[in-house]
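Quick one:
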Amino acid sequence: MNKREFESSIHVDLAGQETYGAYLQLDKVLDAQSPRSNPPNHDELLFIIQHQASELWMKLLVHELQAIRRFVQADQLKPSFKCFARVAHIQTVLFDQWAVLETMTPSEYLQFRAALGRSSGFQSFQYRAIEFLLGNKDAAALLPHRATPTIHGWLEGLLGATSLYDEFVRYLARHGHAVPPELLDRDVTKAWEKSDGLMAVFRRIYEAPESNWDAYEMCEKLVDVEQRFLLWRFRHMKTVHRIIGERQGTGGSSGVSFLRKALDLQFFPELWSVRTELQVPSPPSGAP
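Output:
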């Protein structure tokens, strides 16, 4: 018999009980898709769900990055590495999601694009929060959120707070590394500027990893995050290019050319530049 027996122990009397749908508030989640096209367009639901799902994953990404920052502030790098592992999988999901949107052709998108009005992914406040947490600070990025004081205030707080990179640099200073003092007192509302003095610190770490293992591993975790973020940006840019070509974005940007410029931005420039200057590390003591 091709049938699974319905076990008698399964709860079926759920009146007044916590249920799957209630716990996840699925009534709100599944009722949050409101296509605007008239007449209704088949592909608009894909567009909405794609971006809503991305925002949910970005919410978790912000949650994990903030936890990592707290661990670094508390000099606890090892516990942060578990969060980094989760961040890696979230970033992979965000990257792979573009494949679903890429099933939509330019002709299909144009049928409902006008319904978006001036809405644009550039206005994603959670994306901006991720950038601020990683150190890409820009006060001008707050401007689209002036009409929503709660969101504007939250982002303004992140703009004025230390980034994850700031906190790692401070960790290094607390642990005896020769971090240039000006990096510890810098204006954290500004984007990070490359420091030759900090690059010298990373060079010493990379050339003697056995003596600086936690810091060494943290460096590589940060590089992992930035590389996956760059790949995500690139996939986004190519998806947009595939669907709208060189058209202006709905939010007023130049579109693909604007997205392409972001590929040159770096969160952790010293961690990339130091690779060019590394010498062959000395073998561990006692090695043959």
